[in-house]
Amino acid sequence: MSTFDRISEKYREKSLVQQKAAAKLFDLLKIGGSDDIIDIACGPGHITNGLSKATNGKVTGIDISEGMIEQAQALYPEIEFRKIEAEDLDCNDMFDIAFCNSALQWFDDPDMALAAIFNSLKKTGKLGLACPATPSWSPWFGRIISKVTENREIKPTFSHWKNPWFHLPTENDYKLFFEKHGFVTIFIDIDHEQTDYSAEEAFNNSVKEEIKRQSRDGRIMVDFNRLYYIGRK
Ligand SMILES: C[S@@+](CC[C@H](N)C(=O)[O-])C[C@H]1O[C@@H](n2cnc3c(N)ncnc32)[C@H](O)[C@@H]1O
Fold first, then answer.
1. Which residues contact 76 (CB under 8 A, 6 or more apart)?
2. Using a 6 Å cutoff on CB, does residue 206 contact ligand 1?
3. What SS3 string covers 175-223?
4. pLDDT classification of 137: cutoffs 50, 70, 90
5. Is residue 106 in contact with ligand 1, taking CB distance under 6 Å?
6. CA of 41 to the centre of ligand 1 (A)
7. Quick one: which of 63, 55, 58, 118 has its CA closest to 92?
8. Residue 151 CB coordination number (10 Å)
9. Structural domains in the chain, sorted by start
10. Cβ distance 72 to 47 under 8 Å?
11. Which of 1, 2, 4 to mutate for ligand 1's pocket (most ligand atoms within 8 Å of CB)?
């Protein structure tokens, strides 16, 4: 069972930061009314569903997590969802747009995933990708995670958070990373984002309790650098 199987049911209501990023990516992509779209690492499908409203083309969501895919299928039966790793994506020249929000940092093999995503696009198809960039998180967040991982029940869920997320040092390194896989960069930017979280917005009780302990008023400011990338095949 993957990390995200355990949290899939709560993910949708707790993923406000990711939804904000998805909305920005959506605007940057300028989706055409007949575009065929693949949502890479689609989670529980709420963003895939939003994408499906923007096009009459075919929309597909894929994710590594069985829990996420089961939930997406139950919520949006009219959309095709597949449980498959981005690295193993087996589509060739099928999509006008590959949408990938808040997931690159989790991929075991980002190079393999990017090569598969590139292949899945039609000629001149576009990739829109957003993900946390450096630094992956602030020291207090690291303290919360290490505190939380002391809890035996929670430990498996956060096990690979301890390992820093995949990230590259600079915007130019990201540009070179995508271009190495054949993409022509149309837009790249790293935004500094600050989000004010309340303990009540935390995924689970241990995180909630830890936020309360670490902050004075039960609120905590999360600092993120977030990459937004649009590239063309
Ligand atoms: C933070 S969630 C983002 C979900 C959705 N894209 C969103 O913006 O709300 C990260 C997702 O990446 C998925 N994931 C992680 N590694 C993956 C991989 N190698 N291939 C496909 N999906 C993966 C997880 O299962 C999870 O659903």
1. 45, 48, 49, 52
2. no
3. HHHHHHCCCEEEEEEEEEEEEEEEHHHCCCHHHHHHHHHHCCCCEEEEE
4. low
5. yes
6. 4
7. 118
8. 16
9. 3-136+167-197+223-232 (3.40.50.150)
10. no
11. 4
Q: Is the CB of 109 under 6 A from ligand 1?
A: no
Amino acid at 14: K
Query: Contact at 8 Å (CB) between 98 and 40?
Result: yes
**Nearest-CA neighbor of 120 among 146, 144, 100, 94?**
94
User: In angstroms, what CA-CA distances link 137 with 142, 165, 166, 221, 226?
Assistant: 7, 9, 12, 11, 11
Q: How confident is the model at residue 162 (pLDDT cuts 50, 70, 90)?
A: very low
Tokens (6 digits) for 107: 């991929």
Q: What is the C-alpha separation between 223 and 225, in angstroms, rounded?
A: 7
- What pTM was estimated for this model as a whole? 0.85
**pLDDT for the residue 227:** 95
Q: How far is CA 215 from CA 141, 151, 231, in A?
A: 11, 20, 40
User: Cα of 40 to ligand 1 centre, how many Å?
Assistant: 7
At 158 the pLDDT is 53
pLDDT, position 175: 98
Distance from residue 156's CA to the centre of ligand 1 (Å):
17
